[in-house]
């Protein structure tokens, strides 16, 4: 089981999608419970990643308080342990 975090992705060029495909496609079929978390300020980057790993869900966050971040992290850890 893997949690891969790619934080603050900003590159946006035509060739970037094939670059990310090479990296993410093998990871997209990881073991049950594995997750890929990508953060970016650009909708187009989020859509590119969603296409590459064949997921339609994009979560747009307005920002979390520190206690909310810790709660989210703890929830993810509990899911992974179970």
- Helix/strand class: mainly alpha
Please give the count of helices: 3
Count of the separate structural domains: 1
- Report how far the terminal alpha carbons are from each other: 11 Å
**Overall number of strands:** 2
Strand content: 5-15%
Global mean pLDDT: 79
Low-confidence segments, given as residue ranges, are none
Order of helices and strands: EHEHH
Task: Let me know the largest β-sheet.
Answer: 2 strands, parallel
Radius of gyration: 14 Å
What share of residues is helical?
40-55%
Form type? flat
Strand numbers in spatial order across the main sheet: 1-2
Would you write up a description of this structure?
The chain is mainly alpha-helical and 82 residues long. The protein has one domain. It is built from three helices and two strands. Strands 1-2 form a two-stranded parallel sheet. The longest helix has 16 residues. The chain is flat and about 35 Å long. The chain starts with a strand and ends with a helix.
Descriptive key words:
82 residues; mainly alpha; 2 strands; flat; P-loop_NTPase; NB-ARC; NB-ARC domain-containing protein; ADP binding
Annotate the secondary structure layout.
Layout (H helix, E strand, L loop, with lengths): L2 E4 L9 H13 L6 E4 L4 H10 L13 H16 L1
Organism: Dendrobium chrysotoxum
Protein name: NB-ARC domain-containing protein
Pfam families: NB-ARC
In short:
With 82 residues, this protein is mainly α. It has one domain.
């Amino acid at each position: 089981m893997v949690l891969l975090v790619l934080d603050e992705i900003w590159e946006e060029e035509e060739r970037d999608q094939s670059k990310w495909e090479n990296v993410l496609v093998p990871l997209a079929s990881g073991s049950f419970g594995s997750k890929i978390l990508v953060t970016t300020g650009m909708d187009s980057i989020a859509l590119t990643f969603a296409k590459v790993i064949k997921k339609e869900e994009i979560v747009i966050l307005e920002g979390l308080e520190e206690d909310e971040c810790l709660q989210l992290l703890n929830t993810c850890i509990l899911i992974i342990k179970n």
